[in-house]
Write a structure and sequence with these properties.
The structure holds 2 protein chains of 2 kinds.
Chain A (H helix, E strand, L loop, with lengths): L1 E4 L3 H11 L1 E8 L2 E6 L25 E9 L3 E5 L8 E6 L1 H14 L6 H8 L1 E6 L25 E5 L3 E6 L2 H9 L5 E2 L2 H15 L11 H6 L6 H6 L7 H5 L6 E8 L2 E8 L20 H20 L9 H5 L6 H8 L7
Parallel strand pairs in A: 2-6, 6-7, 7-8
Antiparallel strand pairs in A: 1-9, 1-10, 2-3, 4-5, 4-12, 8-9, 11-12
Chain B lengths: L1 H16 L5 E5 L10 E4 L31 E5 L1 H12 L8 E5 L8 H7 L5 E7 L2 E6 L2 E6 L6 H4 L11 E2 L11 H4 L1 H8 L2 H13 L6 H5 L24 H14 L9 H5 L6 H16 L29
Parallel strand pairs in B: 1-3, 3-4, 4-8
Antiparallel strand pairs in B: 1-2, 5-6, 6-7
The chains are: A alpha+beta, B alpha/beta.
Chain lengths: 342, 322
């Protein structure tokens, strides 16, 4: 376990950014996002969550899959095998670290998504334990410990004047070794401070919900009148899906120009009317009711059936950002749990 | 505030009981102190959930486009909402006799973010209006702060707090706020001062954050096309890739499409999850239109001709000027 004075963090970032692309929460016009670290940027380590979740590092909002040129023969340039430059993300909240495991199940289980795998493997994740959960945080429901992040390569904990860094993987160890001259050995006193900070954070939850039995309860609710009541407020924007760290549905689009072209993959949102629009005109989810139902069923029923875990980490972004206050916390509270394994 | 909520509840339950309407759209309270979402009430017994509080800001009128199954819908309208009604009427998207408008004069709605900033390190539990003060319940007890300092920016520059069209008023009108042209367009004037390159850099930085969720369009009462051009797949007018060119393409076309029809409800800016100051764009256009074609306030009269909806001989021939 190592530590560094907060005042000296900038030297750590300087060193890290020399050997890799370093991303960190940066404030622009009052909005925090993971942006590339550069001298003088307004780093914001106090932000609850970045606006756009860190999924963008492995699964960018837009990525080129291939370029082609049709001549005497068809030339195809495959971009998936070019993905993955050495990247470090500093300051990922524990809920967002948990979301990475959920995304991995989608993109790293057979068939493996090559571009995702390359980006994921070339990235080192430095988590930052939370100090003070917001009322919109409900990660406890999904077994996230907001002071810890077992899925991260390094866990950083704010102990007041210092940041304590604990390596949790070989990648993490390697990075701390690289930073050797800039870090101080942590003492047992620091370990206690970390534990205290984690305990304090944990006692700060204001919103406590349970999802025990929710998946089973939803099994019989596909045709329930509940969705009819719920969806009416939805204005069919894509905010909830785009700010969600676990939403992972995409579209593939062609950008043809003459005899050459580009194929891209981009985030799509099940809230959009054209999401399931078929070429022939039929839409199996004809109204917003089916779309809203799909989003919550996917997270709380279909995904858990397939993977044994809910596809939500309780980060609260959708709660804070939905223009009409329609969010998954409401669904969890209203449908509620019951008996059941998951 | 309670008596205001009770007035709304009575209006709604009476209208539903007498079958004057089969649906009433208003607001209700949700889990958190800053959440007062739109509520759909189709049963008199449920009218009790309706509330009027510092956060009943969402504009309910766009939902009227989806109420074909109701012969008549009742809707509570603040000043801004009522101008949205005129917007839909003028755009021939609403039949006046299919809605009953309950006017709710409004003192402005509170910006939860501003309030949170005023109580750093403290957890706000409840916020209630008490005259021109807000009573804020925090861990340590109740504190009183002047409401007008915590209003949403858009409400601070609101010139029509009273409904401009209604069938009945739920309570007495509020005193109209004095908003000078200078303060209304102050942010626009600031931007106009910046040189072109720097201004482009400013807007690029703002739109860099756009995630293309289309919340600004979907919440906008002036964005009421049956099918939006940006939703068309064939031909596709807007690339789905999140590149800057397409983002600017979308935002510019939207801004120009609502030119002369935008009535500054500011919902686009309020709900933008990326915090993009969209109202500045719309106000810039309004300011320019006022300069070219004379003062015009959209959403006041559904029968008038919006500046870009009519040609007059004396109109400036902008296209000819080089």
């Amino acid at each position: 376990m190592k530590k560094v004075a907060k005042a000296n963090l900038v030297e750590v970032w300087r060193k890290l950014s020399a050997g890799a692309k370093l991303y960190i929460p940066v404030d622009t016009d009052g909005v925090a996002n993971f942006l590339s670290w550069q001298e003088g940027v307004a780093v914001d380590l106090e932000t609850l969550n970045t606006f756009v979740p860190p999924k963008k590092f492995f699964y960018p909002q837009t990525e080129t899959i291939l370029r082609y040129e049709i001549g005497d023969e068809l030339k195809i340039e495959d971009f998936a095998c070019q993905a993955g430059e050495n990247t470090i993300i500093f300051g990922v909240r524990p809920c967002d670290v948990s979301s990475m495991a959920l995304m991995d199940r989608v993109y790293l289980e057979d068939p493996v998504d090559e571009a995702y795998r390359r980006r994921r493997e070339s990235t080192t994740v430095i988590a930052l334990g939370c100090k003070d959960p917001d009322e919109t945080c409900f990660c406890q429901a999904f077994d996230v410990d907001l002071g810890k992040a077992p899925g991260a390569d390094i866990l950083a904990t704010d102990t007041g004047e210092e940041i304590v860094l604990n390596a949790q993987s070989a990648k993490g160890e390697e990075l701390l070794t690289l930073l050797d001259g800039l870090l101080i050995e942590a003492t047992s006193g620091d370990e206690n401070k970390v534990r205290d900070a984690q305990d304090k954070a944990k006692s700060g939850y204001e919103t406590v919900v349970s999802v025990q039995g929710l998946m089973e309860k939803l099994d019989g609710m596909f045709e329930d009148p509940y969705w009819e009541k719920l969806y009416k407020r939805c204005i069919a924007c894509g905010t909830c899906t785009f700010v969600c760290p676990t939403c992972h549905c995409f579209d593939v689009q062609e950008y043809p120009t003459g005899n050459r072209g580009e194929r891209i993959r981009c985030w799509d949102a099940c809230m959009f009317s054209d999401f399931t629009q078929m070429a022939g005109g039929h839409n199996p989810r004809p109204t917003q009711k089916e779309r809203v139902r799909q989003r919550f069923m996917h997270k709380l029923n279909y995904y858990p059936h397939q993977h044994g875990e809910y596809a939500c980490v309780g980060c609260g972004r959708c709660v804070r950002k939905c223009p009409v206050n329609l969010d998954i916390l409401e669904v969890i509270k209203e449908i509620g749990g019951g008996a059941g394994g998951l | 505030m309670r008596e205001y909520s009770e007035k709304m509840q009575k209006i709604a339950s009476d209208a539903l009981e007498k079958k004057e309407v089969s649906l009433v759209i208003g607001w209700r309270k949700k889990d958190f102190w800053w959440q007062s979402p739109v509520a759909f009430v189709d049963d008199a017994a449920q009218a009790r959930q309706l509330v009027w509080d510092p956060f009943t800001v969402n504009n309910p009128i766009k939902y009227l486009l989806d109420q074909d199954c109701h012969e008549k819908t009742g809707v509570f309208v603040k000043g801004c909402d009522s101008r949205g009604i005129n917007r839909l009427l003028q755009d021939r998207r609403l039949e006046r006799d299919r809605v009953v408008l309950y006017g709710v004069p409004c003192d402005g709605k509170v910006d939860a973010a501003k309030l949170k900033k005023a109580f750093p390190g403290q957890k706000i539990k409840q916020v209630a209006a008490a005259g021109d003060q807000l009573s804020v319940t925090v861990d340590g007890g109740d504190e009183s702060v002047p409401a007008k300092e915590y209003l949403l920016d858009k409400c601070q520059s609101c010139r029509y707090p009273n409904p401009v069209v209604y069938d009945r008023l739920a309570w007495e009108e509020v005193a109209p706020r004095q908003v000078s042209e200078e303060s209304r367009f102050s942010r626009v004037a600031d931007l106009e001062q910046i040189d072109v390159d720097e201004r482009f850099a400013y807007w690029s930085r703002q739109f860099e954050r756009c995630i293309r969720c289309f919340a600004c369009r979907n919440v906008c009462p002036a964005c009421n096309c049956v099918t939006c051009i940006f939703d068309q797949a064939e031909p596709r007018w807007l690339g789905k890739a999140s590149d800057m060119g397409d983002t600017l393409n979308y935002q510019m076309i939207r801004a120009f499409h609502v030119a002369g029809r935008c009535f500054e409800c500011g919902e686009c800016e309020r709900i933008c999850p990326a915090g993009i100051p969209l109202l500045d764009l719309h106000r810039k256009i309004i300011k320019d239109l006022n300069g070219y074609y004379g003062e015009y306030d959209a959403g006041l009269n559904p029968e008038d001709n919006p500046p870009l909806g009519i040609y007059r001989g004396e109109d400036p021939a902008g296209f000819d000027e080089s």
